[in-house]
Write a structure and sequence with these properties.
The chain contains 4 helices and 25 strands. With 423 residues, it is α+β, with helices and mostly antiparallel strands. The protein folds into 3 domains: 102 residues, Beta Barrel (conserved putative lor/sdh protein from methanococcus maripaludis s2 fold), CATH 2.40.420.20; 151 residues, Elongation Factor Tu (Ef-tu), domain 3 (Beta Barrel); 123 residues. Helix 2 packs antiparallel against helix 3. The two termini are 55 Å apart.
């Protein structure tokens, strides 16, 4: 008997617990203000109006815009690269400062290049000395040949005089003919010797002229190479090619830099651009001159697309928007600053219907919407057709009229309902 009484009490306790749980569920539903029923017109659901966000369908001007975030940069950027490698011997400036044209930025040291310049200087000096020695030898040879020619001509002239004096005596047999023969042979000898000397003189002059040309060309090449080496040696001290902001400068003392290494960049002030990455979907809708509205430090600035890089990387392509020349001259903007851009993809009608963008677009895909009745006590599901979108609104093509009130918040809690009853 005791066991049976305890069993009844246990059953009564379980029944009471189930009733309390059911009561809690009902109370929770009442608190949430949600109830579901079926009518001939479709599924109906009750909601609290305070949990919804509504908006009025309005008529006005609609411009299709694309809003993105861009980065401010200089329209003219000069990159600093090393011509010859070396290690950083001295650093004159820090990144971020304004530098003047020709101002030294960093000095590199390159022992091999310095030795090469010294070697080239020695080669040029050696070639010049060699040329001077050759010129001296050539001048001595020229003088010697002239002396030989004069001597030969003088001897030939004396022999001719003797022949002229002896010829009558030989004819009168007062002088032996043998002596005349010897004089004539001597004359032929000196005449031929003089001819050979003059031929040698002409050949040496031609050879000497060619050697001088070759020597001058050789010295010119050496001097050109020396000038280039000196120029490269001078460029071990890297200077600013233009005045501007040294926005990047990756240089540390003692660091080794190979030829062609990027040291930094100078952004020339007074000309700015904004670089933005757009989805490849818009590639065929963006063109040079497309209007763009930039918001910079709270100011709206009108500009246009100046450059399009059609290369698509990771689903994005880049466009440049040039700022007006007079903008940014007072230093209120900085390179690297983020800029909001609205690209005006298309200008709509001044009497377009539109509603604000909201979470309902994700839930419905823009194919239907809940429209409130005139009293605001209920809402019905209605099929609609939406058009273009911008950052704030979406264009209504059909299904709604101006002045109607629609729900634009999330539909995730009642996306299966056809009618809503609002408390």
């Amino acid at each position: 008997m005791d066991k049976q009484i305890e069993k009844k009490r246990l059953l009564l306790g379980l029944s009471r617990n189930r009733m309390l749980a059911a009561s809690g569920v009902v109370a929770a539903l009442l608190v949430l203000g949600v109830s579901v029923g079926n009518r001939a017109g479709g599924q109906e659901q009750k909601l609290s109006a305070r949990t919804l966000t509504t908006a009025t369908v309005r008529e006005g001007r609609f411009d299709e815009t694309l809003s993105v975030r861009g980065t401010l940069g200089s329209r003219m950027t000069i990159y600093l690269d090393t011509i010859a490698g070396g290690f950083v011997e001295e650093k004159f400036v820090q990144p971020g400062v304004f530098v003047e044209k020709g101002q030294p930025l960093v000095r590199l040291a390159n022992t091999n290049l310095q030795l090469d310049v010294i070697s080239r200087e020695a080669q040029i000096a050696e070639q010049i000395n060699f040329q001077r020695n050759n010129q001296l030898l050539a001048e001595n040879s020229r003088l010697q040949l002239r002396t030989d020619i004069l001597d030969n001509e003088n001897r030939a002239a004396h022999i001719r005089d003797k022949i002229a004096r002896l010829k009558p005596l030989v004819e009168q047999a007062l002088v032996a003919s043998r002596e005349m023969t010897e004089l004539e042979e001597d004359l032929r000898y000196y005449t031929e010797r003089n001819r050979i000397a003059r031929e040698r003189q002409r050949q040496e002059e031609a050879i000497r002229a060619r050697q001088e040309v070759q020597m001058r060309d050789s010295i010119a090449v050496l001097e050109k190479n020396l000038a280039e080496s000196r120029r490269v040696l001078d460029q071990l001290t890297v200077k600013a090619p233009e005045a501007g902001f040294l926005s990047q400068f990756d240089v540390e003392l003692g660091e080794s830099k190979t030829p062609g290494t990027r040291l930094g960049q100078i952004d020339v002030p007074g000309s700015y651009r904004v670089v933005a990455a757009l989805d490849e979907y818009y590639l065929n809708r963006v063109s040079i001159g497309l209007p763009a509205i930039l918001t910079i430090n709270g100011k709206r600035v009108e500009a246009s697309v100046s450059k399009i890089d059609g290369r698509v990387e990771a689903g994005k392509f880049q466009v440049d928007v040039d700022l007006p020349e007079e903008f940014g001259s007072d230093g209120e903007i900085k390179v690297g600053q983020g800029i909001d851009i609205d690209f005006v993809l298309g200008a709509g009608s001044d009497k377009a219907l539109m509603i604000p963008r909201g979470a309902f677009l994700t839930d419905t895909g823009g194919n239907w919407i809940f429209v409130l009745d005139k009293d605001g006590d209920g809402a019905e599901r209605r099929s609609i057709k939406l058009g273009e979108r911008n950052k704030d609104d979406v264009q209504v093509v059909s299904g709604l009229e101006a002045g109607e009130v629609v729900i634009v918040s999330s539909y995730s809690a009642f996306d299966k309902a056809d009618n809503l009853i609002l408390n």
